[in-house]
Amino acid sequence: MGKINSVSWQARLRFLVLTFLGFAIAMMINFPFWAVAQTPNSNVTNTASNTIDQSPPPIQTPIRPSNGNELRGIWLTNVDSEVLFSTQSLERAIKRLKRLNFNTLYPTVWNRGYTLYPSQVAKDKFGVDVYPISGLQERDMLAETIKFGHEQDFAVIPWFEYGLMTEEGSELMRQHPDWITQRRDGSHLFLHGEKDQHRLAWLNPARPEVQKFLTDLIVEVVTKYDVDGIQLDDHFGMPVELGYDDYTIALYKKDHFGRLPPEDFNDPSWMKWRAKYVTNLMGKISRAVRAIKPNCLVSLSPNPKEFSYKKFLQDWYSWVYLNYIDELIVQVYRDDIDNFTSELSRPELQEIRQKIPVAVGILTGLRVQNVDMRQIKGQVRVAREMNLDGFSFFFYETLGNRDASFETLFFTPAIRPDLRNIASN
């Protein structure tokens, strides 16, 4: 009996030793990866801040560790994309985006001088209530987007893409040519596109009629539709070389004892004087939106701060401190990961994150430009490592047939950050 007990005891001891060794080996194998995944600012050499990693991060790093909120937006456009042009394609796209764990839709509603929804304001002002293309007739694209989006728990924030810009030949420009501002030589067109096919002009933000028209358009959307916010972007400004139209010159002379504006459009005082009209208009829009719907977000997706002001007289940094905007998505469309990281490291972005959510716009492609998935993943990783509030992708059609890759970026759903749910952080 003693021998049998001794053998049994030795067998048990061997079992315990082997179990302990197996557990220790498993911990040694898995612990380094767990540690890297949990530490966004790890000193591992192959991070996105040094190079674009070809594999997805092991787990999703939360934007705000205390609550895991993350803005995951996408712009829905009517250019180089068919997503808005039928009820079926729109519903199918929104269900797809839900499956991929996005949480915010930015559908364009103002493009080339026309609305993409039936607008009484537009009809009263220039006789056309919706963009005259077949895919938008006999339906309300915005109402459909809100319905399908809210059914899938998306925030729906209509995007007034063209801002103060319009296309030459639009009915708006044809009926109101005096609303257009110009350069010192009298020209007003800006040519864009690979064949200069887009001929664009800019509405004058100093004119009361322009201010009222844009404010009325936005108020119409906020009043008529159950939107979660509205968004303006880099086109809500004015190219710095403009402002030499007769109306603006007369206004400047009135404010400056009859003196003409400086010939140099980069003159600091002349820039500041014109920029205040864009700022004043932003204030009017913000106050009008909140008067109707206090919880409606005012979102802005501009270029970086210095470029915005120097090129488009758009002083969005001041707008944050004037409480005109509730959400900032800075467009950082860069191929080079170091340049991308440098833009996100700007002190003003870290500063204003204490006031409002700050996210980054990431380019996922253009009709004439493919963006590699490795670049997209690398930029998402940088945004997370830098603890930004999320990102929005430009634009839907360029997601392509890459669902499996995008699924690796968003393993689980996330709540979009806003002023309310970041206040405790």
Explain what this protein looks like in three dimensions.
The protein contains 14 helices and 15 strands. With 425 residues, the protein is α/β, with parallel strands linked by helices. The strands form four sheets. It has an eight-stranded parallel sheet with strand order 5-2-1-15-12-11-10-9. Strands 6-8-7 form a three-stranded antiparallel sheet, with no helix packed on it. A two-stranded antiparallel sheet has the order 3-4. A hairpin with a 5-residue loop joins β7 (190-192) and β8 (198-202). It holds the Pfam family GHL10. It comes from Phormidium tenue FACHB-1050.
Question: What count of helical segments does DSSP give?
Answer: 14
Q: What are the secondary-structure elements, in order, as H or E?
A: HEHEEEHHEEHEEHEHHEHHEHHEEEHEH
Helix proportion: 40-55%
Q: Looking at the chains present, what oligomeric state does this protein adopt?
A: single chain
